[in-house]
Amino acid sequence: MPRPATRTAVLLCAALFLASACTGEPAVPPSRAPVNIGFLAPLSGPGVSVGTDTRRGAELAVQIVNGQYPSMALPLGRGSGLPRLDNAKIRLIAADTSGSVSRGATEVAHLVRTQHVVAMAGGYESAVTEAASARSEDLRIPFVNGGSSASSLTERGLDWFFRTGPSDLSYGRVVFSLLKERQSKGTSVKRIAVLHTDDQYGNDGSAMIERLVSHIDGNVVADIKVGAQSSDLSSHAHAVTASNADVVLTFLYTSQALALRDAFDRLAYQPPALIAFGGGHADPAFIRRDPSAAEGVCSRFAWSADLAERNPTARAVADLYRETYDAPMNDDAARAFTAVMTLAQAINEAGSPTPADIRSALVNIDVPGRDTIMPWDGVKFDDNHQNIGARGIVEQVHNGRYRLVYPFDVARARLRWPMADGG
Model confidence over 366-390: pLDDT tens digits? Predict the structure, then answer.
């Protein structure tokens, strides 16, 4: 005679079988407890605009994985949850760093110890990401970053840190390739002025420029540091004008990018070319404040709305983002989306919510470019855990929006040089 528990199990199985037979559809297995992942972003303070964009990109990725939009042609996009973990859903727990190095590290520890996250994603300012990922390393928790570009982040020998987006060295090669092509057409580009934050992002960027400037037989005629709390860049702008630079390269955050523009306006000065390495010049707030004053500014990016139009999946995700948040998708949101999608795929490949298993899956992950929304070769990490498939492009503000201008073979708008007259 069967025991009561056994009899109950038999009856339950029979009921599931009959329900399946009646509907003509297989019974969906029950999902296990959600998999918690942490997400860091500056959700207050001067970087709040970018932080909001990155959180939205991360949230949209989780919604797609969890089955809210089952028509999306992305890995994990057509199901509901993580199939190798019994359709477990992902729970994204966002934490505000407020752009603070110490707070970033503290939030990682808090998320791991009290929210039981098994992996981390996000991070914007490179200095914050450096500290946060070091804490994650101590706790042996995988950290997937998409938005911090300082090259040194993946040169520290960390075992648990991964970057899906390009490094500043990768971006730099694209920018100097553009300068080399301009030089071949007779444009003077040898005199380079660099304005940069006095932190890891800016100082790493400045060192990278010194490394690459020989590609154009050029010289850094001014290397100008900007304090993290600087709100008046008048003296910095004077130093740029005195340098007689052919090209100004910047590594600045939003408040500093706006302050530099104001300082240039007061001097009635516009450089022949200003190319930003992301940061504040890539923040939509930079254009929104005064679109006409932003005309002609260039910036490097990892994602392009122009290129997304050529990729049906990228276009669908961008359309969904706009419908969901009543705002266009941008580079920061796209990089966060890609970092979280990569992490979700690794968790699924691991078939386990154990951090060590997730790390092993990240080491071995190989996502072809067609399975992302990025104009990349894909996602595959080298021995330093830098994505070797990531690529950069250059866009320029035309009529109040960034347009793709380089590489020239995929450009959707003509590069204006000098920026003052569009010549």
Answer: 999 999 999 999 999 999 999 999 9
